[in-house]
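ugh ok fine here u go
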Amino acid sequence: MVFDGIPVGRGEAARVSDASMLELKTSLLFFITAIAEIAGCYLFYLWLREGRSPVLLAPALLCLILFAWLLTLHPTAAGRVYAAYGGVYIVVAILWLWAIDRVTPTRWDLLGSVVALAGMAIIMFAPRH
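structure:
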């Protein structure tokens, strides 16, 4: 049963499970958003800096439109979403560095990624009471 948007008659375990699911969904959405943004920018980079075909601009544009749309799916203030998203973007960019650019991240890259991800978690999941 729900009263004024608050579940009633459910135990603490159910509330914790709901919170964990929200955190998982939010993190996954940020991860997909970052892939769309980086892919769109990378395709543009390939065209502009590497002399690849201008045909790459069409999927680049689609990726960047997808990126912008995905950011609108979060149910909180836009500024908070953008700030928190930055942390996930950093992690995905470091993964991109390793997987696509074939550059092994340094321990400093990894430490910075952990710090950025912690910042995202604080911004998005801190109590707002």
